[in-house]
Design a protein that fits this description.
Six copies of one chain form a homohexamer. With 256 residues, chain A is of the alpha/beta class. Chain A has one domain (5-253): TIM Barrel. The first copy, chain A, is built from 13 helices and eight strands. In chain A, helix 2 runs parallel beside helix 3. The longest helix of chain A has 19 residues, at 235-253. Chain A is globular, with a radius of gyration of 18 Å. Chain A starts with a helix and ends with a helix. Chains in contact: A-B, A-C, A-E, A-F, B-C, B-D, B-F, C-D, C-E, D-E, D-F, E-F.
């Protein structure tokens, strides 16, 4: 089975630089996949993407060595299994709040005896190889998002679930949940403290910690702290920021 | 009928700042349309877009005051009329090389008696208004691309065709045609001279001149020379450039 | 944030005339949006529409002042949050049967502290404005459908859930649930009584009442009774009825 | 090969009642196909439809006995052959202006020795049957649109082209071409005269005459005159008219 | 209402030969539908298909007498009701593990009073007929998949749920669940025994038994044992096997 | 620039085994691309594929070393340039009948000074590499189809056009054109003679000869004669043949 570069990076203590895809299109995905990201996450939760569009996006990413990851809309068995069958090498699940949530996540994403994932890796075996079934459990990466007050309350319960490879922090949702401003990088102290706490507990449990960032500065600082999977920006944000800059410069140049 | 802001800008000697869409998706189009461009051109020639995807992209642009323009793949009656029926307020036609080409272009894009455009503005009348038929000929803008050696040979013949509102220079194709490097901004002297010549003749004939640029600097310089419609970058290029910058900074920060 | 015209109408005691979209296409949606409806509901439950097609339909509606509403297939967090992120200004949720159902519905559709909606209004902030996060909770409208025997049993429990703005009656499902014929307007007495009861209790709790109708006569009569959100027909039904009338007249005229 | 009901109707002097599809969707097409039309024409010219969407629309029509017809965007070999390979049993070609145009149309739509249609009826043989190749030339119906001044000038030249089965009049384009108002039914005298002339010459040459109408009254009157293929309305127009009527009645009832 | 050929076959003790669709396309579906299968199952679980693509696939199947069946991704009310509204005449639900699961499945797929299916057979009544509502409960077929250890534990509880028409065995998932190799036909003894047991109990409860097979030999052998619904291969597998055979022969012939 | 394996095979006198894609879907394309073909041709002429669907199919093929080829619907500049910009490494153009046709084909598919291809390899440079512009003219392969009586008349004129890399014989169209039965392999003597003649003249001019086949036997025999590019079957035909075989065996086994 094709190895998962995320696991290889993590094994040596390295951190993965992850890009984010909110635009539901395979050409923009392929363009992003050629920019050198370690992995790209197709966002089926807040991105404008659904399953049908995700498939050619996964194919587009598969033309490069970039690792394909998918964030699902919710902790729901149907979609989790579908994105894996389509060839995702990592899944990020939002709002994992309890030990039971984490157990269901692990069950849905692993074949028996480790879980209850149904068997039918129709595209996954094209991408991963004919021995996919034998190695998928140890190759695919499962992330639980820690982004609510409930999740903080059950943090150790969640982190100690066997088979959970990683957690992913959504700073804006976590901030909202704690009554702070919903931002990515410059979070309020209460949120900052929670993030540090999550990271520390993840380290303690041997679970990889990932986080969403708005800037490279924040991402690098967080890697320095111990995060091993950092997202910066997204296709749509990068495009909009670039466009805004062009328009602003033109307006200024034209004295409008 | 909804007025065409391009004509309004030009009437007072102003220049329009145009964005470019190569990604075949209505969400990226809508995101671009919110960044303040005067107009956005959906590229059915070199962009990855075809008619069916263009329709929701036009709808997305129609949620803002940005003027929707379409570049067609070729001087072909069927697609020219279809993009107008779909509500484009401007069309850019590649490789107009002779007076006859320009006459066909004008004929296909105007109703009788000015041309032979077939009647059926199915979406155009939703966007333009119920009086579309009466005013379309004077509202829509038609651009002929000047980008070949043949076009240079027949420049005055082309520019003097009645009903041709504007020309659009493709610097890379023009450069290739003249044996120069295919670039947007820093063109070889021979190409630069040709561009100046085209601009001068367009001015002489009272035809608006537009041009593709790679940077805001080039675009502003060209406006200063007299161009009144300048494109800078594209959705895909802006996105890729932003992504590349993030990845480069991360690689540098990580010492890779 | 762009205000919600439904709330404005209701504030002054007015009623909204709502159209219904079952055809999964953005051109038919845009055509409908130009006919003067106060709001249009994209039906992801019984309509042939899913998330991916809904997005350009929302964009099409956004070219007009018509308020975009979406009926989701089921009370499921993933899809509820996705339709809101895509810019729906109202959501209708089928088969809300208990107080707990209504509480989950309100939680999924509101940001903390009022609920647990995850943060990422990717298209919603294009449509609503950059201050979307601050005002969404007070702008978006949440409808619970009352259409089962269980819902009748728990009517006051449901109606008293804080944050539930409105209810929506599906007369055919409600009729079926009560052992009556599944019709929209001329419902059996038992169903008629139930509808009156629902309206009265909604009024009592200060919750807006909406209902599906087959004809304008029924809709006007129901507004007269106190309903403030009435649907009449649907894109597909109106088209089919018009077509059938044409064919019938032609057959008659041709003596077939 | 499945027979063509249009030919059967015409053989006995009957007229076909044709519906029109401008909405690019297979569900609206299937709904229309269940309303009793003799044939349905998918409009790739002024409708919002392209080849890719046309395919499932043809499949949707194929669930009923309604004859599938396609209007192509232009007299272009590629698209004419593609719509036939996809299973259209009739093609309408816009703006056939000369004998040479008509000859090319016939050539592109018939196999050798009658024409130069390329062989590959990939879906057509599913719909028509395994003996499609042997009978297609005598089963499919080819319409040339007569709608320009040039076409009037070359009317007999066009009508006498062997293999041209039918002509189709676009009253609004014909009116525009003659300097009249672009309407369907109540055309200006000059256009009315031209229409009568076209019908008379078609009859003389044994070519079936078809025409676009806005109302059943006009369609019936034209059948009475001798037209044997009449279109009334379209999916989008019927839907919009129905919606407008509902909204108008609601507004009136609400005293707005 | 159009009768369900599956029920007709079963009534006389016959077995249905079922094809399988994993390719998300209506042309491949129509091609498959012309090969003589009694029924075709569109696989929304492990196939690459989602709701939006399923709709034209159902339309494609509806051009033939083949019975359209859909496997849903999971036991979830929203999608179960949507596939029925779209005209599926059979639904297969994965991983039905308990009596409560089976009861929910039956409830979601039947109208009151037998269940809680919401009313709105938008396309289903085009396919089934205007009297769909009256007969759907007795026409549509509901399959529960038996493929886990839990399901084996609760087998009689599941099989005795009123309204469950059939069960469907997934040999590879069942094998995995029992610690055996995930294969279709030549299953390990423990799995073989379980399959025989499931068949016997289904017979006892008067529930039709179906099963997935890799070869016609296995399928025929299982029919001989009493299975009445057998799947062999899938569109993608048949295509890949045919292609591999061609390539192998060419390689051999070329001495590569 | 990524080298073109077709050229590498031909350089050493080898023959390429080509697969054919008529199903408009990227998953079936990816499945085919994993079966070991040297190249895969996406058929935009008789296949059910158009530009928009072709793009993800090209991406799917790009996940493997298989060379992506596209057959365009017709000799039309717009679509020829679009398929190249999308990353096709070979184009097959139907019905090239004259020297002028062949010259236009070469012009449209090569950059200046060899031709007039417009510059904008948006996806092609992702697939081919950043130096695409410099090497495309020598890397991409252009095939002219020889399949009409006219082409036979102008055979040497066509074959001597500089820049034409290969010809492709469509045996069924060629047969039709010569009054023979439209078959792939066992063609009538007159067609067989014509094919031999084409091959001989192509060899004489140093132009590679390719041909469509129905069976591996025919393909191998033709390679033995000197053809260097042979197609066998297609995705849809292989799938249908496999399905028909399963159904036939089941019917036989069931004694139907």
């Amino acid at each position: 089975m094709r190895p998962n570069r995320l696991r290889e990076l993590w094994r040596t203590g390295g951190a993965a630089v992850n890009g984010w895809l909110a635009i539901p299109n395979s050409f923009s995905a392929e363009t992003m996949a050629h920019q050198g990201w370690d992995s790209l996450t197709i966002d089926l939760q807040h991105g404008m993407v659904d399953y049908a569009t995700m498939v050619p996006m996964l194919q587009a990413i598969s033309t490069t060595p970039t690792v394909p990851v998918v964030r699902v809309p919710w902790l729901e068995a149907g979609i989790l299994m579908k994105v894996l069958d389509a060839g995702a090498y990592g899944v990020i699940c939002p709002m994992v709040n309890t030990r039971e949530d984490a157990q269901r996540l692990v069950a849905y994403t692993h074949y028996a005896p480790r879980g209850t994932r149904s068997f039918g890796p129709v595209r996954a075996s094209l991408y991963g190889g004919p021995d996919y079934a034998a190695h998928a459990n140890d190759t695919i990466v499962t992330f639980a998002m820690i982004e609510t007050a409930a999740a903080l309350d059950h943090l150790d319960d969640i982190l100690s679930v066997e088979g959970l490879d990683a957690i992913y922090v959504g700073p804006s949702d976590l901030s909202l949940a704690l009554g702070c401003r919903p931002v990515f990088d410059d979070v309020d102290p209460k949120a900052a403290e929670a993030i540090d706490h999550i990271l520390a507990r993840a380290k303690h449990h041997g679970v990889v910690a990932g986080i969403h960032n708005g800037t490279t500065e924040a991402a690098l600082a967080r890697i320095a702290k111990g995060f091993q999977f950092v997202t910066v920006g997204s296709d749509a944000r990068l495009m909009a920021a670039g466009a805004r800059q062009v328009v602003d410069r033109m307006q200024a140049g034209l004295g409008r």
